[in-house]
Amino acid sequence: MRYFVNRKGAVYRRIKGTISYIFDTFQHGRNQFLSPESLRSLQSKKLKKLIHHAYYNTVYYRNLFDRWKIKPSDVNDENDLINIPITIRKNIQSLPKEDILNKNEDIAGCRIVRTSGSTGEPFSIYRGKYDRERRLPYIRMYASNRCRFNDKMLIITTQQNFSKSGYFRTKSSFFRRKREKYLSLEKGIDYLLDEMRSYKCDILIGYVSVIREITQEIKRRNIKNIHPRVIFLTGEMLSKKDRGFISSVFNGEVFDYYSCSECGIIAWECREHNGYHVDADNVIVELVKDDKSVCVGEEGKVIITCLNSYTMPFIRYELGDVCILSDKKCPCGIGFPVLKLIAGRSNDYIVLPDGRRISPYLMMATMDKIKRVIKYRIVQETIDKIRIKIMVDSYFSQEEINAIRLDYEKIMGKDISIEIDLCKEIEKNSVYKKHVIISCLNRSNIKESNNDN
Ligand SMILES: [Zn+2]
C-alpha cells in the first residue's frame, strides 16, 4: 500500500514539475515581447530578490555591502547598481568556496565547472539547486531562431561542459527524449566528423574556431551529407568571412551568441542578424569605462549581474570582454536591448610542425583542470616551441609542472619543446583584449593542414 502511495506522490510531483516547466518556458518566451516599462519592472523585482538573497546568504557580498555601507533596501533597480563596487575574478578567486556560495547550498551536490573564460584565470563555478532554470533562455533563443522541438541537436564542446540533463530534458520523463548529443572536442577531428556523419543533426552548436576547423575539413575531404539547418556559434569573435564560409558549406543559417559560464546566455542574434539581444530578464549588462557607464556607440567593459544565479551570485561582476551598446530598435519585435559588437574574445590556434592545428579550447581545458594555477598564458614562439607562463599559489608543486608538461605532450606530441615559466605577474597584452593563447608564427610561412578558407 505504502508503495502505491509513494508511487502516486512521485507521479504527482512529476506532473507538477512538467506543468510548471511548460509554464515557465512560455512565460520566458513572452518576456522578450514585454514593453520597456514591464521589462524594467520585472528586472527590478528580480534584482531586489537577488540582492536580498546575496546579502543574507553569502559571506562575500555581506562583507562587501557592509564595507561600503550599502543596505539591500538601497538597491531597487538597475540605476542603483552603480553604488555597488565591481567584483573582478581576482577578488573571489582566492576566497574559500564557503564565502562565495549560498550558505544553504549543499556543496557536495553542486555541479562544478572550471573555466578561464577570456582572462586566463582558471576559476571554479558552482551550480546547484538554488539556481533558477538556466536552460530557459537557451530554449527561447532556439525557438526564436528556426529550431523545432523534434530537431536533433549536436553540441561540440569540452568534456566538462557535457550536460547531464540537456536541452529539453527536465526531471520529468515527459521531456526525456534523446534529441541532443554531446561530442568532446578533445577526441579530435576524425572522431567529430565520423559522429557528425552518422548523427545527421538539424542544429549544430560549438565554438567558432572549432566549427570553422570542422567546416574547412568537410570542404577539404568533400564530405556531402552533413547539413545542419541552423548553426549556433559562441566563445569567440565571428568574422563576416567565417560566417559566410560556415553557412555556405553547411547550407544553413548561422547565429552567434554571447554566453559565459558564470550566468549562461547573455545576448544572442535574432533572424535579422542586427546585433545581439541582451536577455534582460536573465542578466543585467552594464558597459563601463573608467568607472562610468558609456554612452550609446561607445566601447565599454562588460559588467554583469546574473538575475537567476542563487548558488553562486554574481553582482556587478566584470567579465573581461568589451561591447558597444546600440540605440537601434530591431525590426524583429523583440524588446530586449541590443548590443552592437562583442570584442575581446579571441584566441589563436597552436599549429604543429606536421600542419595539425590544436584548438585554443583544448589548450585551455587542459590548464583549467589544474587547481593551483591562478593565471596563465600560452605562447607559441616558434613552430616547435611553446612557452607556458603560469602564476600559481603557494601549494603548487613540481609534480604539477610535470603533469602539465605530460598533458600537453599528449596533445601536441614530443616534437614540440614546452617551456614552463613560473611568473609572479602576467602582463596584459592590451587594455581590453586579453588573449590567453597567442601564436607568434607568421602563418603564411607555415604549412597548415587546412588553409583553403
Ligand atoms: Zn531582433
Tell me about this structure:
α1 (2-31) packs across α6 (136-144) and α2 crosses α3. The strands form 4 sheets. The chain has a 12-stranded mixed sheet, with helices on both faces. The protein contains 11 helices and 20 strands. β5 (203-207), α8 (208-221) and β6 (230-234) form a beta-alpha-beta unit. Mean pLDDT is 83; it is low at 166-177 and 443-453. The protein is globular, with a radius of gyration of 23 Å. The protein is 31% helix and 24% strand. The chain is of the alpha/beta class and 453 residues long. The chain folds into 2 domains: 1-345, Rossmann fold (3-Layer(aba) Sandwich), CATH 3.40.50.12780; 350-445, GMP Synthetase, Chain A, domain 3 (2-Layer Sandwich), CATH 3.30.300. The protein has helices at residues 2-31, 36-57, 59-67, 89-93, 97-100, 136-144, 189-199, 208-221, 240-250, 360-368, 398-412; strands at 111-115, 123-127, 153-157, 180-184, 203-207, 230-234, 253-260, 264-268, 276-278, 283-289, 292-293, 299-306, 317-325, 338-343, 350-351, 357-358, 373-382, 385-392, 417-422, 437-439. Zinc ion is lined by residues 270, 272, 274, 277, 330, 332, 334.
